[in-house]
Specification:
CATH architecture: 3-Layer(aba) Sandwich
Number of helices: 8
Number of domains: 1
Largest sheet: 5 strands, parallel
Distance between the termini: 31 Å
Helix content: 25-40%
Shape: globular
Oligomer: single chain
CATH superfamily: SGNH hydrolase
CATH class: Alpha Beta
Strand content: 5-15%
Strand order of the largest sheet: 2-1-3-4-5
Number of strands: 5
Structural class: alpha/beta
Length: about 210
């Protein structure tokens, strides 16, 4: 039976900056790697955030509704980059809303396997970051919360913090180029294709899934 894989996320998932996101995004590449036993769908939405009070909460998007209706067997959740705004960062609010999103999927009839993905790093280009996002807020706020939620919930977590060492793999310091997307797909593939085992500490981490 074909396993349904839902890639949940923002522009990093959708494939912003790529000439042909439908064929070049990380979900599209992941489909090729997983093969015909899997059906991978891209539910990324440009500009989407975790927080419910953001300009574009993911839970208010059509992509969110469609992903739930699809009743996936595997959920790959990569959100949080657009929440890295230093002027309104609130760890407690972000965590609360992030956990609500996770619960939305964990309570589906399919009882999917859920893998949380802490996003790639973001870089300043000529002293500024795309959209006013803050690399410091991502590293000191968003990333630790995602890892904590994974550990406390017993969920797998892929932390992509070490995947890009500099901006050469990004189109604009935030969105990965074709080479960067390929690296993302490879990292996610190693975890998605493996069988879950034990608790979070025994499962996928960036250092283990990226060569």
């Amino acid at each position: 039976m074909t396993k349904r894989v839902a890639c949940i996320g923002d522009s990093l998932t959708w494939g912003f900056s790529l000439p042909d996101p439908r064929r070049q995004s990380y979900p599209a590449l992941l489909q090729k790697k997983l093969g015909t036993d899997y059906a991978v769908r891209n539910f990324g939405c440009n500009g989407a955030s975790v927080r419910f009070d953001a300009d574009m909460p993911y839970v208010d998007t059509r992509a969110f509704d469609q992903s739930l209706a699809w009743n996936p067997d595997l959920v790959l959740l990569m959100l949080g980059s657009n929440d890295a705004m230093p002027w309104n960062w609130d760890s407690a609010v972000f965590r609360h809303d992030y956990e609500r999103i996770v619960t939305s999927y964990s309570e589906l009839p399919s009882r999917p396997r859920i893998i949380l993905i802490a996003p790639i790093r973001m870089f300043r280009v000529m002293g500024v970051t795309f959209g006013g996002l803050s690399p410091e807020t991502l590293e000191e706020g968003v990333r630790p919360v995602i890892r904590e939620v994974a550990e406390e919930s017993g969920l797998q977590c892929i932390d992509l913090v070490s995947l890009f060492t500099d901006a050469r793999y990004c189109y604009d310091g935030v969105h990965p180029n074709a080479e960067g997307v390929g690296m993302m797909a490879e990292a996610v593939f190693h975890c998605a294709a493996s069988k879950p085992r034990g608790q979070y500490r025994d499962q996928c981490r960036n250092q283990e899934v990226v060569a």
